[in-house]
Amino acid sequence: MPSERGDLREPAIGGVSTSQLRLLTKVARMYHEHGMRQPQIAEQLHISQPRVSRLLKQATALGIVRTTVITPAGVHAELEEEIERRFGLRDVVVADTGHSSPGEQSALKAIGAAAAVYLETTLTGGDRIGISSWSSTLLATVDAMRPRPNPVADQVVQVIGGVGSSTSQIYATRLADRLAILTGAKAIFLPAPGLATSSAAREVLVTDPHISDVMATYGSLTMLLAGLGSLEPSPLLMESGNAIADTDQDALRKLGAVGDICLRFFDEHGEVVKSALDERVLGIDTDTLRSIPRVVGIAGGTRKYTAIRAALRGGWLDVLVTDLDVARCLAVEPAP
Amino acid sequence: MPSERGDLREPAIGGVSTSQLRLLTKVARMYHEHGMRQPQIAEQLHISQPRVSRLLKQATALGIVRTTVITPAGVHAELEEEIERRFGLRDVVVADTGHSSPGEQSALKAIGAAAAVYLETTLTGGDRIGISSWSSTLLATVDAMRPRPNPVADQVVQVIGGVGSSTSQIYATRLADRLAILTGAKAIFLPAPGLATSSAAREVLVTDPHISDVMATYGSLTMLLAGLGSLEPSPLLMESGNAIADTDQDALRKLGAVGDICLRFFDEHGEVVKSALDERVLGIDTDTLRSIPRVVGIAGGTRKYTAIRAALRGGWLDVLVTDLDVARCLAVEPAP
DNA sequence: AGGATACCTGAATGAGTATTCAACACTGGT
DNA sequence: ACCAGTGTTGAATACTCATTCAGGTATCCT
Lengths: 336, 336
Prior knowledge:
- The structure is a homodimer.
- The first copy, chain A, is α/β, with parallel strands linked by helices.
- The first copy, chain A, contains 14 helices and eleven strands.
- Chain A has helices at residues 18-33, 38-45, 49-61, 77-87, 105-122, 136-144, 166-183, 199-206, 209-216, 235-239, 246-254, 286-290, 305-313, 324-331; strands at 65-69, 91-95, 127-131, 153-158, 186-188, 223-227, 229-230, 257-261, 264-267, 294-298, 319-323.
- Chain A has a seven-stranded parallel sheet, sandwiched between helices. Chain A has a three-stranded antiparallel sheet with strand order 7-8-9.
- In chain A, helix 1 crosses helix 3 (49-61), helix 4 packs across helix 14 (324-331) and helix 5 (105-122) crosses helix 6.
- The two termini of chain A are 45 Å apart.
- At the A-B interface, helix 1, strand 1, helix 4 and helix 5 of A face helix 1, strand 1 and helix 5 of B.
- Strand 1 (65-69) of chain A pairs antiparallel with strand 1 of chain B, so a sheet runs across the interface.
- The structure holds a DNA duplex.
């Protein structure tokens, strides 16, 4: 039988006779519109229940029954799926920032709120959460979370030391502390600077049991909450006393670094950028980080776009929470 | 006595927050469009299976997920042919509404689904589609359409301004937007009210390039998707803030008008009814409208019967999508 | 405050549905 | 006639999903 390409014929769809179509529609109506159960329909029409099931399946296949999902305004399901698909993520949350201008303050709040909701709905207990620190986005997230009556996580572990002055070290600690309180988890702090003055200094510090004990827990984390760093100047970093010296930053840029997670830097393809800095970082190492089952990246703003894209390309994240603008850009990126 | 309850659920919020809507939509898409099983979804989103089940139920209740049973073409072939013959139409699609009572909700869905199928099978690419707005029937149509993988139309153009409050203007815009997304076409909006407050006001508005540029495209449309207005009170129109003032309506009735397409009114013979209103309408004009090669009227319900019959008599339409009740009446009408 | 109500949750479970499987019926070819 | 091949059927069953239930929390009302 020569197969016809043109499908503009008058009667009978898909090689099904009109009388069968009648039966199909009848059954479909009974089931979907009148809410009858299959055995009921079977009895009434004197056919077997499996037959009803098959008819319904066929009706769906032929398009007689169609189910549509309508995306409500202000929700960006397609966008989220597109990004998930492109970069192989488990989940993407797009915060609707409305028409916020470059003044990132409201975007920050929106991302924080979205991330907070994400955490509240997906933290069900038993997680050991790592949290990278001193990120204003993470701060916004924690600020937006509501305290849970009963524990929804076991541990909250600080995966990177405090950075800069002792003031911002407290800052870092407070973030972990707040999250621990909100989730009812035990907080585990890393009482150390994030960046030792030299690799030798780092060696000395990691022999301290207070520090090595904490770092030993990194391997058993089930989740990591990570801010993304970009190598653009960030207001908070600046204010907190130059986390990374300008010279270091320049060196990293020369090596092609565009961003970092927990001070582990990567280039625009998401490839690790090794540098002298690595030997001075007191925090989770790259391999351990990448072995965490659920890494949640929370970041937005066009300033961080390059870093976000790189992190996705490199497969650093499993879940991304970001804003609408960034999401729109990501959705049109070529796949990694 | 309007038995229809809140039909203006465009904000789609039944006391549900946006973040919840987001989750609902996401789950709904995973289940219905990607065919994932509930446990799978639960695992990926870190929620429990019962929760997925409940979310899906809620999504259905809120109308985010809707299931329709359509009558396959050809089941009412004789009826369709009869109407085509009598009124010289190119195509007629009769939606079987089952035994639905005056409560027009299910009839609306059936017509919408039938129209959706018609569009899906006859849009093959290259069309420039005009769409009249704020019609609940058109809304139902767009809702029932399934996204096509590749573009099947070039443009979707809004041929009449928004009507009523700013809320329902968005309504109008979204209709065009959704259709554009579904067909992969470029959306062109008419950023204006459908009815200016005076003919002078209209003159001012049409000098705006944002508006005149859009209106300039009307001449090259290859297809028009039109709802039919009747001069009976329509629930949607009423709720959306009295599109047409009562006084205007009375005047039109006195002139013999029984219905309209894109606010161009006609009497029971389908003859144009000129009135002062014409000078205030921001939308496609009668001549341009009637020169469009394929005008598809989508309307049903006995409330609109007179208007539908008049439109057919006047030759306003090339294609009609309607319900079984109206079709039966039309089939026994004397030819125009 | 206290207490009652309404609500939400996940584990367990029962309801409802899809699929397997063996039997059977129909083709068309030898 | 006979027999692959193909398709259809219903009984049994494996599967998926919706609901119950118990335990808990917010909120309102006294």
